[in-house]
UniProtKB/TrEMBL annotation, chains A, B, C, D:
Keywords: DNA-binding, Transcription, Transcription regulation. It comes from the Bacteria. This is TetR/AcrR family transcriptional regulator. InterPro entries: Homeodomain-like_sf, HTH-type_TetR-like_transc_reg, HTH_TetR, TetR_C_15. The keyword Transcription applies. Residues 38-57 bind DNA. Residues 15-75 form the HTH tetR-type domain. It holds the Pfam family TetR_C_15.
Length: 205, 205, 205, 205
DNA sequence: AATGAATGAGCCTTCATTCAT
DNA sequence: AATGAATGAAGGCTCATTCAT
């Protein structure tokens, strides 16, 4: 009676493997930088053989892509969690304060990996999948829609896009420590005014 | 009277060569992308030998660096030209309108190269030289200072930094044609409100 | 009963590979000379890919170094074999006769390789490992010590050093076929008198 | 009246140039080692252009060859000077003492260059010209002939060859400071006994 | 004769990917 | 499915030599 299943169903094993590999990739990337990262190294760091690595990823690009996806998805989860908890009670400002807190927190999950993914990558080639991008977009749009009345921007989609870009740029400024420049701490408090300022700006036409 | 020198003095020849090489680099980069660009190809595209290329650039990185510098310097020229022509008569809004026009124009000088330099590069490693960065910064700060009274942001340096980041992010959104997303044309008119909105936002504390 | 392991245990395979590569290196070196020897050629001669070669040797220098070590170690083996078989019965002269026979034989194992290693190499940079050098030294010193009474040289270590140098120089003269010069055969019988003459020379002070 | 000749006759200029170039080669060789020496560097060190260098030497090998020749010729001069001053009064021992002194002094003329020429060169390929070799040989043979009666070696030519090799080996041991090993100073006094011991060794057959 | 920029063959080395075991 | 040795195309860079000026 072969009732006992494999300890783990195949799919699960595969997923665990994929995660192990991505963890290794992340570690190597952080430790050595993109230029000195290669598949053999990643396999070794994952405790498997290169051959096995290629069982789970068809090529190096797929590996990079998957890592980006996973990283961004994790950030998205945190972000959506915050958005989902918003009630109708919140003001535009308080909502964005929460949202920015969440975004900063998300970026600080794996800050080194995040830095490399943002700065050191020849990889916008393969942009984060549209699905993820859209969910970020939709979350922000949801907030804007809820406060439609308070917003002077004529087109919500356009405003969402602009806010998204502003947030990304400014939060990276806070999170990514550059060699010179102003302290991240002093930028942080400016993000809310920037967003709110834009959304509520007086428009002539 | 053999007074006439060689058609071009030595220094000039060297500069012409450097420019020829950078032009070739730019072309190859645009045509094939960073990953498929190599020094032999660049030399060929420049109509010279690899050896010659290495007479002018010590290594591949120096080539990339120089190309970035040249590109950014050209953008800076255009930008500073606009800023220099500003009179005290301009309003905060009109000044930023001019400034954004200039920036967009600057980014459209070599849009494809610009895209690759912005997106495809493992190159924050070698950031644009601080001097250039600072001159961008100073230009913007100059404008802000002139309109200090109209600005609610408490710290001009911080505000400059934020504006700079916003401008970069939003102008890239306008200039860099992504596969999906909103049309750049619709983003463009939002930049002024975004900047002005931030600068004049009501601040509680 | 699948008790039989792979035909060759891993370590053995690796060693075989190293030897195959060194054999190829040796062959190429002999056929083309050092200046025209390169890693790709060696790999080809070894019937493997360059990549494989670099799996066993980190760089070209390591390859050369290893070849020298192997060659000298083999010579050392032959030499030590002879020394070990010496009994107390031998005279100073008969001992050195045997010793010189062994050295000549050792040099004639791979005479062409030996010539290149001795003459064509920018390689004192990476001297034969001290351990090997010392074992040669110690063997000779052992013989001298046994015959201490018959030796006029005041310091055994110094005498060992001198004898070692003399032997190397004279045996190379015998073994290395130069373009012109005396026939090696006529030099050979002079080595024993040279060594014995030195060791037993009358010293005034 | 174009009476004034070029300041220097052509031949002389050429010789001066050749010497300038060889001096530069020597300097570069000593400062950077063979592996890091190249023709462009030598030309620069000589204060001329590569093109000019190639006016005087057809290729790199010729340059190396010429430098060796010059160096060895200079050593030969010093050596022959000593030999020429020998009178019939000298004993075998005193003659060799003088001769060894001269050789050591010769090797210490440009010790660093000498070291590189001896140790770091893939250059026995192009052995010192036979003429020079022969003059060394002849000088030594001359001394041996003068003392023929005191010498037990049956064949003067063979003995000359052996002595020559011994001298070269032992003097290099004195002059070339290796990383480990006995102090050169302690080897020096052994050279005379070695040579004399060989020449006067008792021979059985 | 001098110059030195230009040449380009050639070398060492890396690494994504394959495949026999 | 796993292994990891093997592959080999590709790339950065050097340097002896040439040649237009």
């Amino acid at each position: 009676m072969k009732l006992q299943p494999r300890k783990e169903p195949r799919q699960a094993r595969s997923r665990a493997m994929v995660d192990t590999i991505l963890d290794a990739m992340s570690r190597v990337l952080v430790e050595r930088g993109y230029a000195k990262t290669n598949t053999n190294l990643v396999a070794e760091a994952a405790g498997i053989s290169v051959g096995s690595l290629y069982q789970y990823f068809p090529n190096k690009d797929a590996l990079i892509f998957a890592l980006r996806e996973r990283h961004v998805t994790r950030m998205l989860s945190l972000f959506e969690g915050v958005v989902d908890q918003m009630t109708d009670a919140g003001s535009l400002t308080s909502d964005f304060e929460a949202l920015i807190d969440a975004l900063v927190a998300a970026h600080l999950l794996e800050p080194e990996l995040n830095r490399i993914l943002e700065e050191e990558f020849p990889a916008f080639n393969m942009p984060v999948s549209n699905q993820i991008r859209e969910r970020f977009f939709d979350s922000i749009r949801g907030v804007l829609k809820r406060h439609r009345a308070a917003i002077s921007a004529p087109d919500i989609d356009v405003a969402t896009f602009v806010v998204q870009r502003m947030l990304k740029a400014l939060i990276n400024a806070v999170v990514l420590t550059g060699p010179g420049g102003l302290s991240p701490g002093s930028i942080r408090p400016e993000i809310v005014p920037a967003v709110i300022g834009y959304l509520t700006a007086q428009r002539l036409n």
